[in-house]
Amino acid sequence: MKRSLLILVIALLAGSALFASSYLMSRRVCETCASSATDNLEWLRREFHLDNAEMERMRQLHDGYLPKCAAMCEQIAAKKQELDAALAGSTNITAVAKQKLTELALLRAECQAQMLQHFVEVSQAMPPEQGRRYLAEMERLTVGEHEQTEETMSDHHGHVHGGN
Amino acid sequence: MKPENTDPNDARLGSLLREARATPSLPPRFREGVWRRIEESETPAAAQLNWLDALAAWALRPRFALAAAAILICAGSIFGAVQGTQANHENAQTRYVTSVAPNSLR
Questions:
Q1: Res. B49 pLDDT band, cuts 50 70 90
Q2: Rounded to an integer, what distance in angstroms lies between the CA atom of residue A126 and that of residue B81?
Q3: ipTM attached to this prediction
Q4: Which residues on chain B are in Cβ contact (under 8 Å) with A47?
Q5: How far apart are CA A98 and CA A83, in angstroms?
Q6: Contact B89/A42, CB-based, under 8 Å?
């Protein structure tokens, strides 16, 4: 009985090792093949089944948007530094710090609006059905995640924002 | 000199030979031992032992071992490919979202 049990245990271990090694190898090969593609827009092509002409249009829109986004990010970073300076060493929120917070929020809102405008333009350059799906997905991945965080926080602390 | 008896049908000689044959005495509690072994062979433990032996013998068959190895390799590869593709898809999506939406806006 001991010998049979030993044979079965060894067979099980060998089987598990075989399955695990093929799984890991196959996964590694898949990931290596895909990681060689460094194009940031590859997801658009695959997810929304875009042809070359549509991808060319996407690339133009993307390249046109990136400098605007970078400029806005620089402004936000500079404003954050100003806010940090206003907050440094103080034990209270000063009027200057409040002003900087408001300015930072305005910049972020402006940047967000610009981003959403880009999503709308990209969605309009896609076939209608894919465009709708793209817009919904991007709103979920960007603005939606922020809303989820707010909802989670209000649930945890019993706060209701904007309630009557 | 006494003549040698070569008659194979000599009844007296036959009975003498039978009496002379040593009949070994049975070991103590022989009968109990036999019954115990019969009972043990009918218990579930023995059935389990047979089942394990059969399974082990089956696992050692080359045809079964090869088939099992092929199935495991195929299943592992397919599962790994599916998972890898899914991970790639998520990475590509993250790359795109990161390129258009700075972290401070998400």
A1: low
A2: 30
A3: 0.74
A4: 89, 93
A5: 9
A6: no
- Measured in angstroms, the CA of B15 and the nearest CA of chain A are apart by 50
Q: What pTM, to 2 d.p., does this model score? A: 0.63
Nearest beta carbon to residue B101 from set A22, A26, A115: A115
Number of cross-chain residue pairs from A and B with Cβ atoms under 8 Å apart: 137
- Cα–Cα distance between A41 and A125 in angstroms, integer? 14
Give start and end residues of each alpha helix (H) in B30-61: 30-41, 44-59
CA proximity to A3, closest of B48, B63, B52, B65: B52
A34/B88 CB distance under 8 A: yes
**Could you tell me the residue ranges of all domains in chain A?**
1-32, 42-155
Pick the CATH number of A42-155 from 3.30.450.20, 1.20.120.1490, 3.40.50.2000, 1.10.472.10: 1.20.120.1490
Handedness of CA A29, A31, A37, A43 (dihedral sign): positive
pLDDT given at position A36 = 60
- Range scoring the smallest mean pLDDT among A58-62, A155-159, B32-36: A155-159
**Chain B residues lying within 8 Å of A18, measured CB to CB:** 69, 72-73, 76
pLDDT on residue A115: 92
With a CB cutoff of 8 Å and minimum separation 6, the contacts of A22 are B72, B73, B74, B75, B76, B77, B80
Task: Check whether A116 has a pLDDT greater than 90.
Answer: yes
CB within 8 Å: A62 and B100? yes
B52-74, pLDDT tens digit by residue?
888 888 888 899 999 999 999 99
* Distance in Å, alpha carbon of A73 to nearest chain B alpha carbon: 8
Put simply, the answer to whether A111 touches B52 (Cβ < 8 Å) is: no
